[in-house]
Write a structure and sequence with these properties.
8 strands, eight-stranded mixed sheet, alpha/beta
């Protein structure tokens, strides 16, 4: 999730979905984004499977050549809630023209500095998707991974994501299902036992079931193309796609032409 506080709030008069308490939590963690064994360890571990899903969905949706190294070349990509740039950087390496958005200013500072060190040309903005939409920007691909469970107004957020897409554009989201298993894994396990995340990082009541998210996306004018679960893979010491969506899941949805 990303960060600014006062500066972006309703500068365009648009309805803000930012939860100030959530932004403050992620701002406090900003300098740990690129520590693979720190608070963001779960995201580092999940990144390969998330990126594989995004790459395949973009290639399939736009009819691109999966044999090339940079299949996203020529596509404008918005990474919503970009944090320190864990997703934005590999998307740029895939050829996308990437804009990373985060309302947490410290996250954006970290992301900019790391992109410079990696010699990557990524536009990072300390702002919200609502303000970008109000400014008239539109994208071929929008990603919002592990973000929706932290926003204050889910329907408004989904509407802004939809509005940010060009006709025929593709949205990829990932989040946590609201089940007993997700409570055990994401809160008791990750926050209290493994201590990967500070206590209070997640609010189980804000987790969204796949059917609820699909309904919200439909109401925002998008059609869900595919939903997959993401589960730990002990053999690879990482994650893999699965049919099991009880804890983590990722989906792709398209806007009509």
């Amino acid at each position: 999730m990303a960060a600014t506080t006062k500066t972006n709030a309703r500068r365009s008069g648009s309805h803000s979905t930012v939860d100030a308490a959530e932004i403050g939590r992620f701002d406090a963690l900003a300098d740990r984004w690129w520590d693979a064994n720190g608070p963001m360890k779960p995201l580092h571990s999940m990144n390969p499977v998330r990126l594989g899903f995004i790459r395949e969905q973009v290639i399939s949706h736009f009819g691109l050549d999966r044999r090339i190294i940079a299949p996203l070349a020529g596509l404008a990509v918005a990474d919503v809630g970009c944090g320190g740039g864990l997703l934005s950087e590999p998307l740029a390496r895939m050829g996308g023209t990437v804009t990373g958005l985060d309302p947490a200013t410290q996250n954006i500072a970290v992301a900019k500095a790391h992109a410079v060190r990696m010699e990557l040309d990524i536009r990072y903005l300390p702002t919200t998707i609502e303000d970008i939409v109000a400014d008239g920007e539109r994208f071929d691909v929008v990603t919002a991974l592990e973000v929706v469970e932290h926003v204050a107004d889910v329907p408004a957020f989904l509407g802004a994501l939809s509005s940010a897409l060009k006709p025929g554009g593709l949205l990829v989201m990932s989040t946590l299902n609201r089940t007993l298993r997700s409570y055990a894994a994401a809160i008791i396990g990750a926050e209290y036992i493994m201590r990967w995340l500070p206590k209070g990082t997640h609010d189980w009541n804000k987790f969204i079931r796949p059917v609820e998210l699909e309904r919200g996306l439909n109401e925002a004018g998008l059609q869900v193309l595919e939903t997959r679960g993401m589960v730990p893979d002990p053999f690879r010491i990482g994650w893999r796609l699965a049919d099991d969506t009880a804890v983590n899941y990722i989906l792709a949805a398209a806007r009509a032409q």
